[in-house]
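User: Hi! I'm working on a homework problem where we have to compare a predicted structure to a textbook description. Could you give me the structure for the chain below?
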Amino acid sequence: MRTREEMIQLIEDLSNANGVSGFEDEVAEIGRKEAEAYCDVTIDSLRNTYMELKNNKGRRPKVWMDAHSDEVGYIIQAIKPNGTMNFLELGRSEVSSLPTNKVRVMNKDGEYLPGIITSKPPHFMTEAELGKGRALSDMAIDVGATSAQDLKENFGIRMAAPVVPDVTCTYDEKRDLFMGKAFDCRVGCAALLESLNQLNAEELNVDVTATMTVQEEVGERGSMAAVYNIDADVCIAFEGCPADDTFSPDYMIQTALRKGPMLRHFDCSMITNPRFQRFALDLGEKLGIPVQESVRSGGGTNGKYIHASRHGVPTIIIGVPVRYIHSHNAICTLEDCQNAVKLAVEIVKALDAETIQKF
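Assistant: Happy to help. Predicted structure tokens:
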């Protein structure tokens, strides 16, 4: 089991890693480094990271644990003559919040260079432009180049370069608050890695395989590949899920900070297996682990492809609440992450062939 300080460092390292959809190499390497002491680790060409517990015995029911390694960001679409760059989103964000945000753009040597999402000063705006929302096509990324040639020769930035928010994760020990980027789903990755760590010391009735899958934010593409490599009987998918406790009426708050992980019954991608879901909720209540429930009109997770793969794989989502998800700056707590780990570990410890058959 990691110490509190080690968990804080793990979440910070994962949050700070550069890894927009399609460019998750840094995150995969963190997963490899953290898990290789207790797992056999392989990484495929997509950069999906596969982790098999070393104490697996084989010929037992298989539990798949998953978290996605990518974050919402951008990709360079074109370079303008003045040295600024058009860009597209990798994943969905609130466009109106983007101007003046700092970003990092990867150059041809793999170095991430600082830049800013452009904002026209009000001095140069027409009356019609003032106070009006801007489209993504009205924005650009500026790293300080003065021409397209300058950008190429002195910055080494090319078309299709990945772009990440330029945010450094911080932790407030007194108030147990993380602020940073990419908690969707790096806080889920941290919960996954710690769950594996703890499960390796347990006598289980199941085998455990885990993945940190790529490209979830652009259509769950990494999980589409992973389902062909894992013949799972059940799946627990970790997420950094959107908290709704700062804008929803009280009766609609289903994912609040400090109230434990959220188990989602329904979203646009999956109707959660009700028997596995009930098993997890009842176990959490029995053991005094705080758990929240939600029914969502939007959203989606890797459960979309996992639950419908092969013979059908009963799948639940364990979401760590994150405020202001899909923006450059978000908030989450260590407490909620730790309770997500507790719940997942207890679920796996309670599973056996007879129980899984009932799902």
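For your comparison, note the following. The chain has two domains: 4-71+181-357, 73-165. The first strand starts at residue 39 and ends at 43. Good luck with the assignment!
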